[in-house]
Amino acid sequence: MKRVYTDYHELLSNPEVEAVSVTTMWDQHAAPTLAALQAGKHVFLEKPMASTVADCRAIVAAAHRSGRCFMVGHICRFNPRYAAAKREIEAGSVGRIVSIYARRNIPAAVGKQVLGKIGPIIGDGVHDTDLMLWYTGARIETAYAQTVDVRGLKHPDIGWTVYRFDSGAVGVCENVWFLPDKTAFQIDERMEIIGTEGAIHIHETHPNFSVVDKDGWRSPDTTYWPELHGVRAGALRAELDYFATCVSEGRSPTVIRPEESLAAVQACLAAEASAATGRVVRVEDVS
């Protein structure tokens, strides 16, 4: 590493820097992202895009003005199982989607590390909200959510969300950040897609590979960032490779577009608003 910066403005002023990755907390995404785009850099931004719809819209507009490659890291679109589901849906295998259920649950100890910064509905639910939008090709009209606060942390431990799409389909997201710490699941991740002509079931569930040694039992990741023959592999590498290829070839990323990432955030914020009020919230009213 040639240089280390403590001020991102100094980094952005370096003409040798062509692309940046913004991995700050979600409520600190907007300023460095907008500055990087203004400086003419290609930008890879971690999900969620931003913490407000207004910031998301500002980022989308800046990305289009910049003429540079911009992409939000919705890693699940690069998971081969979720990508395979998209291919089947596009091929008409299940007909018109009428119902989607997603589960993305993690141990309580892991949840405690991040619940001071972000809640489960936006923190993890944004993954499956994005997938639901991707698969249905529809808009989410309304959100109704309930949360459970078990430990009195800044954000609730559990969130359940029900979406209604303009296609008539219904979607349910289960996000529990309170699995027992002795659970076998590093993450309990599943999805069920029901259509008029068929169904798809995705089980990205630990432990799909486990090791018992003198120190006990462990289940290394085999999907998102595993090591393969001495190098990092998996969906994270595929995602970053895709972005780098778009940069090198001078083309805009199309696997995930800025407007799609905005839509996922807006729906999740509607769900959080619903949980706070106990009412059904129209997504278009969240601005």
Short descriptors:
alpha+beta, Rossmann fold, three-stranded parallel β-sheet, Dihydrodipicolinate Reductase, domain 2, globular, 9 helices, 2 domains, seven-stranded mixed β-sheet, 34% helix, 287 residues
Descriptive overview:
- This is Oxidoreductase.
- InterPro entries: Gfo/Idh/MocA-like_OxRdtase_N (IPR000683), Gfo/Idh/MocA_Oxidoreductases (IPR051450), GFO_IDH_MocA-like_dom (IPR055170), NAD(P)-bd_dom_sf (IPR036291).
- With 287 residues, the protein is α+β, with helices and mostly antiparallel strands.
- 34% of the residues lie in helices and 25% in strands.
- The protein is built from nine helices and 14 strands.
- The strands form four sheets. It has a seven-stranded mixed β-sheet, covered by helices on one side. It has a three-stranded parallel β-sheet with strand order 1-2-3, sandwiched between helices.
- A hairpin with a 2-residue loop joins β12 (227-228) and β13.
- α3 (53-66) runs antiparallel to α9.
- The helical percent reads 25-40%
| Count of distinct structural domains | 2
- Look at the structure and name the CATH superfamily of the largest domain: Dihydrodipicolinate Reductase, domain 2
Mean pLDDT: 96
Number of strands: 14
> Which topology of the largest domain does CATH recognise?
Dihydrodipicolinate Reductase, domain 2
What is the annotated CATH architecture of the largest domain? 2-Layer Sandwich
Poorly predicted runs are none
Largest sheet, described in full? 7 strands, mixed
Globally, the shape reads globular
Radius of gyration: 19 Å
What's the CATH C level of the largest domain? Alpha Beta
Output the strand order for the largest sheet: 9-8-4-7-6-5-14
